């Protein structure tokens, strides 16, 4: 269905199968097939959203909203003939019981991207961006790496900070006043990180939930462990996780929970995030009607 929609919009997406998972690659028309890009072309901005969902869940927020927001952003980027961007709709972000991060589609995808020279690109992951008015820039990587040592981890932390700084610069450029820096549940960033590629996750929460959870993790930083390892969650801990996240992967992740009136701010953020690789132009910031 997703490929059919992209074909209808004349994007001609590439379907690339890795380890049995079907990923869709979408780039500006002038760039051609990814595998034919010349050396050096791979240092670009890559925008990622998974299109799979848990069985028996409508998957409205996780992750249909982000998929459609990236498609809308792609339409705007194409309209102004922007270049040096790539969108990947990933498969197998959701894991089944007993599976680990190496089973995630983004893990084998990231290994493949590194092999063909995309390891130095800037990766931004959009997940659960359909319910709320506050943009959340994830700090989960900081939590995961807090006790790590060695020269490799120093470089990784530098890359994490570079991605986050660009996201924050974009927020300032757009004068967005509802933004939070808090740890988030793992998305495709888990598989990417395990494969050696740093990615910055972006999500959305209602402002009240974002404020309450931000205060909680500032006072109790170790609470982020609950997001990493759900097996240790007690009923009390579960209730302290934002309600928007608790509804993911279940029947309550329905379309009536979405806040489409705020979709445009996510699209504007995505487009502005690409501005440095789009020649610095700002005329694409007007949201399509």
Strands of the widest sheet, in order across it, are 1-2-4-3-5-8-6-7
Strand content: 15-25%
Count the helices. How many? 11
Helix amount = 25-40%
Number of structural domains? 1
- Give the biggest sheet: 8 strands, mixed
How far do the termini sit from each other?
24 Å
C-alpha Rg, in Å?
18 Å
Looking at the overall shape, the CATH architecture is 3-Layer(aba) Sandwich
- From N to C, what is the helix and strand string? HEEEHEHEEHHEHEHHHHH
Q: What is the element layout, followed by pairings?
A:
Layout: H1 2-8, E1 14-18, E2 21-27, E3 45-50, H2 60-79, E4 85-90, H3 105-115, E5 122-126, E6 134-138, H4 140-144, H5 151-174, E7 179-182, H6 188-194, E8 199-205, H7 207-219, H8 224-228, H9 235-240, H10 243-246, H11 263-273
Parallel strand pairs: 3-4, 3-5, 5-8, 6-7
Antiparallel strand pairs: 1-2, 2-4, 6-8
Helix pairs in contact: 2-11, 3-6, 5-11
Written overview of the protein:
It contains 11 helices and 8 strands. It has an 8-stranded mixed sheet, with helices on both faces. The C terminus is likely disordered. The longest helix has 24 residues. It is globular. The chain has one domain: Aminopeptidase. It is 39% helix and 16% strand. It has 289 residues and is an alpha/beta fold.
Quick structural summary:
With 289 residues, the chain is α/β, with parallel strands linked by helices.
What characteristics describe this protein?
alpha/beta; disordered C terminus; 289 residues; Aminopeptidase; 11 helices; 39% helix; single chain; 8-stranded mixed sheet; 8 strands
């Amino acid at each position: 269905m997703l490929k059919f929609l992209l074909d209808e919009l004349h994007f001609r997406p590439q379907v690339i199968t890795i380890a049995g998972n079907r990923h869709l690659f979408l780039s500006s028309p002038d760039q051609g097939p990814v595998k034919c890009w010349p050396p050096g072309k791979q240092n670009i901005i890559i925008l990622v959203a998974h299109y799979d969902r848990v069985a028996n869940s409508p998957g409205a927020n996780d992750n249909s909203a982000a998929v459609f927001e990236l498609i809308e952003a792609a339409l705007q980027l194409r309209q102004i003939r922007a270049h040096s961007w790539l969108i990947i709709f990933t498969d197998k972000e959701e894991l089944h019981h007993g599976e680990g991060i190496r089973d995630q589609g983004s893990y084998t995808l990231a290994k493949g991207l590194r092999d063909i020279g995309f390891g130095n690109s800037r990766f931004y992951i959009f997940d659960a961006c359909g319910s709320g008015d506050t943009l959340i820039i994830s700090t989960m990587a900081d939590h995961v790496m807090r006790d790590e040592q060695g020269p490799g981890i120093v470089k990784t932390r530098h890359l994490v900070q570079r991605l986050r700084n660009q996201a924050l610069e974009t927020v300032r450029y757009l004068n967005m006043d509802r933004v939070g820096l808090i740890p988030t549940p793992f998305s495709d960033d888990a598989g990417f990180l395990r494969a050696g590629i740093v990615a910055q996750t972006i999500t959305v929460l209602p402002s009240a939930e974002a404020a309450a959870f931000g205060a909680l993790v500032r006072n109790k930083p170790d609470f982020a462990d609950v997001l990493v390892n759900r097996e240790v969650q007690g009923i009390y801990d579960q209730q302290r996780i934002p309600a928007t996240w608790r509804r993911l992967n279940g029947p309550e992740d329905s379309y009536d929970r979405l806040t489409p009136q705020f979709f445009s701010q996510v699209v504007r953020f995505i487009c502005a995030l690409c501005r440095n690789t789009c020649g610095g132009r700002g005329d694409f910031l007007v949201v399509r009607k």
